[in-house]
Amino acid sequence: MEQTLDVRFTDVWVPGYGQVGTRTYNGTVPGPTLRVRRGDTLRLTHINGLPPNPPHTGGHNTPHRPNSLNLHTHGMHVSPSGRADNVLREFAPRTPDEAAAGGAEPRYVTTVQVPADHPAGTYWYHPHLHGSTAEQIVGGMAGAIIVEGDVDEVPEIRAAADIVVVISELKLRDGRVPAFASNAWVTAVASTFTVNGAVNPTLVLRPGEVQRWRLVAATAVTALRLTVAGETPRPTVHQIAQDGVTFAAPLVRQEIDLAMGNRADVLVQAGAAGRYALRAEGVPVPLMTIEVAGAPVAPPMRVPRSLPPGRPLIEDSDVTDPGADREVVLHVDPGVFPGAFPNAYRMLGTGATPAADPHGDLTRDPAYGLFDPAFTNHTLRLGTVERWTVRTGETVPAFNHPFHLHTNQFLVTHRNGRRLPVPVWHDTVGLAGGTPGESVTFLVKYEDFTGRTIAHCHQLHHEDLGMMQTVHYIEP
Ligand SMILES: [Cu+2]
């Protein structure tokens, strides 16, 4: 599968909002949906038509190079090295001299080999260059990746309309994304939520119809608790996959929690005619209006009883090195640094980036627990199964630090120390604050791909400000 992704500032019409001038893939928000089959090669050519980067004088854990990018195939189990899903590359724009001389806009080739046994499901892509990720994603740079395969052949699913629902969270002021110039940016600039590039579009189902929605939380800042609102009988939501991995059977859900970066595939079963809304808790405007109208489908469409599971489960007894339990804490220390970015966004616990001066005041140490690309926080040996516990150090309940590990999906077995009735595969998992903040425990097997990549908070401005670690997958 081949696709050119032309990145430049574009004027985009956002229905329900108006004209927006922003960085786009191919002139649209969201970018094009990429469909691949298991075993295919995804060949992407990025053209960076953005202007030269402004000079940067702040530290490396403050926003910088807003017009450089790269590519992340979020959630996919593919190589993080070379010209594949390598978020340590930089796709720079022209330099000021090159732009002044009218030189060609640079092109960058990415080749992602999708394994033949890759779980079929819903993934997404976005730029992931440290220092510029948040500003680019809140401008709408994101798109869905669909990996086609076995689950699509289930008769009830094959019969359902396949609808990609990309939820974007745009940070706009007067139709522009203000530069990420201070911590206040996140709260001072209101979020505008769009579905497939429109504010509150309408989706129509017929009574008795079942549609498959691929919900993508292409958001940077806000965790979404989704519900279908309206008079009963409301359409029924059956979740069939989380983060691209199909369940063993559909699960009826009253609400769907999507932290930033999560996906959920759902089968939506429409009953009586009526108007309903897909709502996110705390967001005043519906994300989408759902209209059930027209001639009933006869006989009513069905939801399958069982599904081909996307990945086999792993067990606690598979943990190969019981001494290798990792515990990671995502924690913000406010008011540490001078200037516009006073907060220290840290990852503490196992593998934390060490302090420059271990005898100094750790809370004032700009190295301690912050991202350092030259330091390896976690060395992870292929073939081993490990257990991680990740928790948040936040006391404010609304404050969410979603944890995202690149390259290997992980099986969440516990939340807040309690075993889940059914463990769930994730690549990103939300951690709400509170007293105490939430924790999750997961099992992960490092498989197939060596290389250096990252684990980080998917509240993406936190990542740009240092809430990120390096992981190094190595040969057994
Ligand atoms: Cu965070």
Description:
Strands 10-9-12-17-14-15 form a 6-stranded mixed beta sheet. A 6-stranded mixed beta sheet has the order 21-20-23-28-25-26, with no helix packed on it. Strands 11-19-18-13-16 form a 5-stranded mixed beta sheet, with no helix packed on it. The model has no long low-confidence stretch (mean pLDDT 96). It has 3 domains: 2-149, Cupredoxins -  blue copper proteins (Immunoglobulin-like, Sandwich); 161-292, Cupredoxins -  blue copper proteins (Immunoglobulin-like), CATH 2.60.40; 316-474, Immunoglobulin-like (Sandwich), CATH 2.60.40. Strand 14 and strand 15 (245-253) form a beta hairpin. The protein is 5% helix and 41% strand. The protein is mainly β. Bound molecules: copper (II) ion (CU). Copper (II) ion is lined by residues 330, 401, 457, 459, 462, 467.
Ions and ligands? copper (II) ion
Count of the separate structural domains: 3
Largest beta-sheet details: 6 strands, mixed
DSSP strand tally: 30
Strand content: 35-45%
CATH fold field value of the largest domain: Immunoglobulin-like
The CATH architecture designation of the largest domain is: Sandwich
Given this structure, which CATH class of the largest domain is correct? Mainly Beta
Distance between the termini: 32 Å
- Would you identify the regions where 5 or more consecutive residues have pLDDT less than 50? none
Please work out how many helical segments DSSP would assign.
5
Could you say which overall geometry the principal axes of the C-alpha atoms support?
A: globular
* Average pLDDT figure: 96
Structural class: mainly beta
Rg computed from alpha carbons, rounded to a whole number of angstroms: 22 Å
- Strand line-up across the major sheet: 10-9-12-17-14-15
CATH superfamily caption of the largest domain: Cupredoxins -  blue copper proteins
Name the helicity range: under 10%
